[in-house]
Specification:
The protein is of the alpha/beta class. It has 6 helices and 9 strands. The chain has helices at residues 6-12, 58-63, 88-103, 116-127, 145-150, 170-178, and strands at residues 16-18, 30-32, 42-44, 68-71, 82-84, 107-110, 133-135, 158-162, 182-183. The strands form 2 sheets. A 5-stranded mixed β-sheet has the order 1-5-4-3-2. It has a 4-stranded parallel β-sheet with strand order 7-8-6-9. α2 links the parallel β3 and β4. The longest helix is centred in the middle third of the chain and has 16 residues, at 88-103. The chain is globular, with a radius of gyration of 17 Å. It starts with 5 loop residues before the first helix and ends with a strand. The model has no long low-confidence stretch (mean pLDDT 95).
């Protein structure tokens, strides 16, 4: 992933890096929040939910070949690289915003109270006729899904991002991540 080295991720997240200095210049291959999707070179972002604290999956993710993990606490006796951050959720948003700024591709933002997904799909179907296009999949239109969509970027020329909200000021936070060039 372009310029997503452990050093840059640490800086973007205002985190503290623990691990071998020689790994700081290595780029992550992907960023995941689902431990079942762990693969070689990925960065694991453990989200603390209402029922599950994903920090408990860090050992299995690292055993699957992850390059590093984020953590909201110091991991005693860890023998792998990790970055301590105040909030994993905020960190993944910060990483996505940093990544998207580097890509310098047009972003179409889709929002509204009704018809977001249909509008997203219509815009995507038109844009993809000429450009390789990345779009929001499923219901990935919130503060976790939007960053994960951005971080799926491969070599697309345009992004069509759906943004939904169910909390006060959430749209403002999503817009700050996506910085849409065109809004519907």
């Amino acid at each position: 992933m372009k310029n997503l080295t452990l050093e840059n991720i640490t800086q973007v997240c205002s985190g503290t890096y623990y691990g071998p200095a020689g790994k700081l210049q290595e780029e992550v291959s992907s960023i995941i929040t689902d431990s079942r999707k762990a693969d070689k070179g990925c960065l694991f972002v453990p989200i603390v939910g209402e029922r599950v604290d994903a920090h408990k999956f860090i050992p299995q993710v690292m055993a699957a070949g992850a390059l590093a993990t984020l953590s909201e606490r110091v991991l005693e006796q860890a023998d792998f690289p990790y970055i301590v951050v105040e909030s994993s959720l905020q960190a993944v948003k910060d990483i996505a915003e940093f990544y998207l700024k580097q890509l310098e591709i047009p972003v179409v933002g889709i929002t509204g109270s009704v018809g977001k997904t249909s509008t997203r799909d219509m815009v995507y179907s038109v844009v993809k006729q000429k450009y390789k296009t990345l779009k929001t999949e499923g219901n990935y239109n919130n503060e976790i899904g939007l960053p994960l969509t951005i971080l799926r970027y491969q070599d697309e020329e345009v992004m069509v991002l759906e943004m939904g909200m169910n909390h006060l000021n959430e749209m403002s936070r999503l817009s700050m991540i996506a910085h849409p060039d065109v809004a519907c």
